[in-house]
Amino acid sequence: MSGKKRVCIIGAGMAGLTALKNSLEHDLDAVAYERHTAVGGTWIYMERKVGESEEDVHSSMYQDLYTNLPKEVMGFPDYDFDTNIPDSFISSELVLDYLRDYAKHFNLMSFIKLEHEIVRVRPRYEGWEIIIRDLRCDKYSVEYFDFVLVCNGHYTTPMYPETEGLENYQGERLHSHLYRKPDIFAGHNVLVVGGGPSGTDIVNHIHRHAEQIYFSHHLETAPRTDFMTNVIQKPDIKHFTPDGAIFKDGSSATFSYVIFCTGYKYTFPFLSVDCGINIDVNWVHPLYKHCLNINRPTLAIIGLPHQICPAQLFDLQVRFALAFFTGRKELPSRGEMLAEMEADMAARWANGVTKRVAHKMGTKQYDYYEDLATTAGVTKLKPVITKLMKNCSRRYLFELDTYRQKRYRVVDDENFIGVD
């Protein structure tokens, strides 16, 4: 047996891969468990099988998805996308290729156990007892670790709004989690609910096929949709009817499909109650800086914040957690961590943030990155990442038909240019 401390990494998607790579670089005995047959997580496109439930579908990837962030900020800080790719906004297939290249470049595959599902995580003595199921032979085993990095992804369990009359609606309904191709909507009137990037992109994706699209959202600034002549923007839904809906402005519409682009629930079915993690609607707590389990700070959850720059955030959160796991930095007291969390959340609640989006960052993400790096004493994000992110922010709302044509080139750690 190695004398190294052991870390269990749950998942081998984008977050799990950087967790594994950084753990190995910190001289930890690291193992990543992935229940699917390949690495890549949500970036793997999977057709939905007939009769398959929402819970059985792991990936939310749909056909012909292109990133809404440029590849110049989509990569990890120590491994760039192939510079021979001319476009900045790229297909999901190219992102998946990048993740697999990253795994090969850093020799991660031998530390990943594919088709292994984590059944239970529970504290034991000073560490963690992990029950693992080998899906290939349906056998169970028990392993012990000093640390746990939870990287299971959060695009698997759909969240639906509680809207009056939905149970009476007789048409077809699906969550964006199950959306795959636009052609099934040919000739139909469709309601798309939710004004986030996925809702806006799906409206754009299906408008050439659907007869009429009603786009219901409560964005303060309405997205530009004039180039899609069959799209009518609507406010939130007051209540559903058997063949449509009444909206809060008193208008109505009839449609045969509803697509809910209303987010996902955070779920950790493998965590035992005594892990000390609670979920209230979608607020996961108590966590130090939205990441480290305050009750048992040898476990961290990577990737809870949303409206962020994913790969950069995952990498930074992992390095933040490892600084404390390895003892390089000393944690504040439990009381100090709780007080900081409570002050942060009190400010969020006061600003109208609900528990449904408790970990939303948006424009606060840049302060969050700075805080993580400063607190843990780790390398900060390159300034060019922040500058590029701010340049791209909300562009999908106003230039949905053209913004993916933009190309960027990073000049150095501080600067970028547009190349067209």
UniProtKB/TrEMBL annotation:
Gene3D superfamilies: FAD/NAD(P)-binding domain (3.50.50.60). The keyword Zinc-finger does not apply. Its EC number is 1.-.-.-. Its cofactor is FAD. Keywords: FAD, Flavoprotein, Monooxygenase, NADP, Oxidoreductase. Belongs to the FMO family. This is Flavin-containing monooxygenase. InterPro entries: FAD/NAD-bd_sf (IPR036188), Flavin_mOase (IPR000960), Flavin_mOase-like (IPR020946), FMO-like (IPR050346). One of its GO terms (molecular function) is NADP binding. It comes from Ceratitis capitata (Mediterranean fruit fly).
